[in-house]
Amino acid sequence: MKHPNYYSTKEVAELINRSIPTVHVYVQEGKLTPVEDPWNGHHGRLFSKEEVERFIETMPDEPTGLSLNQAAARLHTNRASITAYINEGLLPATQGKVLGRTATLVEESDVKEFSERYQKRIQEDRLTQRQYYNKKTKEAVYQRFSSPSLPEARLMREGLGEWYFIDPATKKTFSYNEGIYTHRLTSNYSVEFGKRSGTPGYAILNLPAAYSLTYQAMDLIYQHVNAANLYIEMIEDRILLHMKDMLFHDVPDELGYFLKRQLVHGRIRYSPEHEALSIESDEELLSVYLPREIKEWLKKEAEEKGTSMQEVAGDIIEKVYNHDTKFE
User: Fold this and answer.
1) Which of 40, 167, 242, 267 is deepest in the core (most CB within 10 A)?
2) What is the band of 265 on the pLDDT scale with cuts at 50, 70, 90?
3) For residues 221 and 243, what is the distance between their CA atoms, to the nearest angstrom?
4) Is residue 22 part of a domain?
């Protein structure tokens, strides 16, 4: 129901070309003040039309906000993903001027709301990005290189920056071209991209960035796991490595114990059948038959949350499980 002298939160957002969460931020900052509900029952806040009109006059002509690159940095993703979220209508955006040029801008409050609402979608999209891998050369971060004059060097990259090498023995770094053409470095193995596994979930290892056993672990993983089944995040002095289920043969005991200590999600065990070390996600597939109306409801919920029906159903089952086991 519309009121002649008042605007709802949604109407204010439409008038000022901002999102509803941004209107809430303006209220918290004292830039907009809702009125007491004169109808004692209206759902949501109401704003005096006079106050809203005065507020519009004080607003800057050009919209403000985060650039696509800044929004990507906030969500630890890339510009292409932010553009996709905007095109799908999941993340509100406006056009504004930056240094005299038209640019797409996103409100910081919208980015925050998006990160909370679509957390699993963001994580899944991150897992498809492989900034650590060069598909053309079949090279990846932490890959081992060597030459007659340099027994070991590790290929490195920070985000989307330039590739470079580090000498683990001296901690010295040098450019990619210097390593290839001056030190004559060649890779000790190639890192194949391969095909993505259909097994559910990922095992997650949290490895110290500069450590001899981490280097050994990366050599082992790269020679067993295709890049399509890996995702690597560099977080300060740690490597967060997501990995599909895999068997590893001829693993030294010290390295096996190290991997077990660094596992933060999933399970690691010795498989006598295969005489190998197994690292697996603790997620498993479950097929169920549902009435059509429940399936349609799950589909609607998944579309609204920007995720899959399996994720919605899994969240519901996990919540019930956690509630029931809490009181056992």
Assistant:
1) 242
2) very high
3) 9
4) yes
Residue 36 within any structural domain of the chain: yes
**For residues 301-327, average pLDDT:** 74
Q: Is the pLDDT of residue 60 over 80?
A: no
Q: What is the pLDDT of residues 129-177, one digit of tens each?
A: 778 899 899 999 999 999 999 999 999 987 767 899 999 999 999 999 9
Residue 220 lies in a domain: yes
Asked, for residue 286, whether it belongs to a domain, the answer is no
Report the SS3 class of residue 306. coil
Cα 34 to Cα 45: distance, rounded to the nearest angstrom:
6
Q: Which of 78, 94, 127 is the last residue of a domain?
A: 127
The total domain count for the chain is 5
Angle between helix axes 79-87 and 68-75 (nearest 10 degrees) is 100
**Same structural domain, 240 and 274:** yes
> 214: part of which helix (H) or strand (E)?
helix 212-222
Q: Are residues 179 and 210 in the same domain?
A: no
Strand 94-98 relative to strand 186-187: parallel, antiparallel, unpaired?
unpaired
On whether the CB atoms of residues 212 and 219 are closer than 8 A, the answer is no
Write out pLDDT tens, residues 85-111.
999 888 999 887 665 567 889 988 899
Domain containing 84 equals 68-127
- Could you tell me the end-to-end alpha-carbon distance of the chain, in angstroms, rounded to an integer? 48
Taking a C-beta distance cutoff of 8 angstroms, is the pair 105, 67 a contact?
yes
Q: Specify whether the CB–CB gap between 165 and 154 falls below 8 A.
A: yes
